[in-house]
Amino acid sequence: MPDANVLPDATTTDGALLVLAIVLPAAGVLLSFVLGGRYAERIASVLLPSGFILATIIFGDVWQSGHRLVYIVGDWKPPLGIALRADGLSAAMMVAMAIVICAVAIFAHADFGMRAGSVEARAPFAFWILLMAIWGAMNMVFLGGDLFTLYVAIELLTFAAVPLVCLDGRAETLQAALRYLLFALLGSILYLVGTALLYGSYATLDIVLLSRRVHAEPATLVAATLTTIGLFAKTALFPLHLWLPPAHAGAPAAASAVLSAVVVKGSFFIIVRLWFDVMPGLLGPVGAQLFGALGAAAIVFGSVVALRQQRLKLLIAYSTVAQIGYLFLMFPLALDTASAQLQGSGALTGGMLQAISHATAKAAMFMAAGLIYVVLGHDRIAELGGIARAIPMTIFAFALGGVSLIGLPPSGGFLAKWLLLEAAVATGQWWWAIVMLAGGLFTSGYMFIVLSSAVAPSGEPLKLRVAVPRYQEAAALTLALTSLLLGLVALGPIDILQVGRADSMMVGPR
Amino acid sequence: MNAATLFGLCGAALVGFGLYGLVTNPEPLRKILAFNLLGSGVFLVFGVVSRRAAASGLGGDPVPQAMVITAIVVAFAATAMAIALVLRLLQETGRSTLNADNSGGTNTDRGNS
Amino acid sequence: MNLAFDIFTVSVVSAGAFFFLAGTVGLLRFPDSLTRLHALTKVDNLGLGLVVVGLLPQANGLFGALKLVSIWLLVQLSGAIVTQLIAGAVRQRGSDG
Amino acid sequence: MTILSAFDIGLVVLILGIGASTIAAREAFTAVIGFVVYGLLLSIAWVRLSAVDVALTEAAIGGGMTGMLILGAVARLRLAKGTDTRASLPVRFAAGGLCALVAAGLAIAILSPPEAIPTLAPMVMENLAQSGLGNPVAGVLFVYRALDTLLEKVVLILALLGVWSLAPDSVWGGIPGLRVYAQPSSTLTFLAQLLPPVGIVVAIYMCWVGAKEPGGAFQGGTVLAAMWLLVMIAGLKNVPSISQPWLRLLLVVGPVIFLAIGLAGMVLANAFLDYPSGYAKPLIIAVEVALTLSIGVALGLLAAGPPERVQQQ
User: Fold this and answer.
1) Nearest Cα to Cα of residue B79 among A153, D66, D153
2) Does residue B113 sit at the A interface (CB-CB below 8 Å)?
3) Domain limits at D44?
């Protein structure tokens, strides 16, 4: 399959940046571990912003050149060695996740800041190291060019995410963490058995090599099924979502933001890699409709349950279950009916944009919910009265996040849903359009419940327990604004999502 | 049927056993044990893949073997973390269960699903 | 010569296997912990010992033979001590646990 | 050949029987004992699959360390109140059907191998000489796929951090709650005095021989961890508190050296995790030695659990 856009595998100029994107977080984790909790935050505060800069440089490189960056680790080309590759999808996701993680780091300073001169404390020590580990693991997921490397990456992600759930050590969160761990382990072991079968059939796990060799045969089909089910469990796609709400709602606010915004996107990204890059021709119309149906069920179920929640953090967590559903609508919409191949079209762009805008919006909402909890000492939705007057900036951030989730212009959610709707119309699959519109209505419903309660006057004068630091509110608002203005990328670098796709129309620098 | 295939089928059956134990057994500790069984079944599948690709004077393809070694260590780390969670849960509540309804505490933070 | 070695190996390893079998039957059938331990020591000492002796002619040079013998010695050591510990625990509990 | 296939069939039957019994057993204790035996049988299966490196790892980690860990947990869980209700019969039937489906799918996949079985073995062997290693598995772990191996060490450290983070705040920086059976001059003390020198020699040997024969950092590290745990359980050495700087240093020394040599490869050789030609073997052995130490300490501490006591001054 000769194609101008598939580069011969060799390290490209600036490929070393990809190594840096993995080595920096790993070094941060090791260094913080030795130096102890007193330095962990300082190390993170240097490394995380440099990670963001690194991601933007990689983004710029990929966008400018219109080609992917490749680095051959150890100078051993696949299939023997491992390649790191940054295509448009990786670059865009890297930048988005770096933004969220940096904002979370700013937000978390209030809860996990190191007091000068104090001894090492447990929660900050763990939090900063785990945050850097999540950043590294996500970069691995985005850049890894080998399915087994991706396995190690999602295990890294699991081991970094689970302890975040139960940092406060309450019985409920311990239980949630244990359940999360068991689901995640089941997911990764199913993924692993799939890679074993794929290796058995093709003697390589390299994504590019596999995509050239892969064909429909029993072992491959079994491998694809098991791998996908495993990743569904890790992404919390309905009906394998049971672990998500208690885990995401019980964690400390900063941790919830990372878990909901970042961590579930890791396994989702591998699903996209598998089906769009490794075996685009294998899903077929039936499989694609099945993915879409699960997504639709997640939207309906998640939204309905979210509507019935009494507590804010649980509502947001169930909203995550619903929003994950949207991500899977892109599979039936990206299927080219003539060739029965998944194609990098508007639907893929829409889906990835949905992932990014959900990440920024949801992180902002969890941060806002955390601040509300700090101020009121509870997060019961019915008793939020007067809060909008007390911390207007936070409530504003929450509302803006909601705007993006609902999909109002000019938010990223709007552009994402617009692209998906366009694809639904173009391919004549009107039923997905109905699901999307219904989901938007549900989302407006639960956003309305929360906001109307928040702006309502309080019966008695509101007793604020503590004042909220301004920078925490600013972090939430920044993310919400990012999500709101994400729709404007339509005018700019949105094409980057297609860079490095074999079937993309775009060639050459511009 | 050669030996490799035999052990492969054994691995497939173990995956089935482990999965069953993981899904149906309510005790977390037994779930962890079942996960290990499931894991070892998966590793055997790697073993078959390696064995039947024997070439160049080797008894098997070394690449899947190296992957299994990596995966065994990861599985051990996972087991250690899960057990630490179970024991901490025991310390906190006096019981070890995943079932929220009888955890004794006030389940204020839980959903209604 | 080789044939003699092979005959030696087969017969001695079979003898070892017999002790393994006897010990296992004892482990399953004996009534209490102490007698079961007694059965197990037969497996450790004689069973494994005979298997090792039987395998010596087949070993890969002197170094290989040494490794085989050291395995037996290590099992002897740990077996004896673990047996002691279990017996101690049984006595502390005062029953045949 | 027939004797061997009879042996294989017998082995598979045993593995399946004991494996099923660990799932079906009523008592957790019975299940764990079954699991340890199962681990040992499985390592024999790995030998039969000509994967001696894996067999060693499985026996040491899969059977030994995991068994010890779960056994310790069972002992503590005897204190747990109440029992969980087993899943209802229809649920179990449905689950059984689903699991049978997965197993059947895997069986079909295994029974339909590609016509020409692809393999990387020749390519591994062709390039192995360059690195000076004789063990192809070590070649894959430290030369071709070194990135995975490096990251997996980070996974180990994160798992340990996860375990530690479960400690209550009041005992942070304290001593892991390993059960110590310190009775002066008991037989256990005797074992803990006699075995470690032998064990350390075995660990060093395993690490050293790993370059050309089965063995290596994982296996050596596990033996090291077992010796350390034995000494601590017998009360001959105190369990160190987790805030000790030397302990933290030992934990990361392996990955740090690995990472440093990998980065040096960008300057001195052609790429990240590439070794300068001619120096590959000594560098890999240096990495393996450091990793053996780190793995030993990490596995030992993972087995010891989160801190439970504050250090007494």
Assistant:
1) D66
2) yes
3) 9-77
